[in-house]
Description:
By secondary structure, this protein is mainly alpha-helical. The protein contains 2 helices and no strands. The model has no long low-confidence stretch (mean pLDDT about 80).
Amino acid sequence: MQIHAVVPVKTLARAKSRLAGRLSLAERRDLVIAMLGRVLATLLSCRGAAQHRDHQVAALGQAQA
C-alpha cells in the first residue's frame, strides 16, 4: 500500500506572516524550511510512503531525518 500526502506550503516570502513583528523575513523563511523538513522527514519515514518526484523536496526531508 502506498501512502500519499499533500503538504500545503505558502511561498517563503509569505510564510509565518503573523510572526513578522518578532522575526525577520530570513528568520521566518528558515523556520518554515525547518518545519517543512521535519514534516517531510516524518512522511518519508512511513512504511509504504512513495518517494517524492521533486528531488529538492525529498532532500530537504532526508536532511532532517
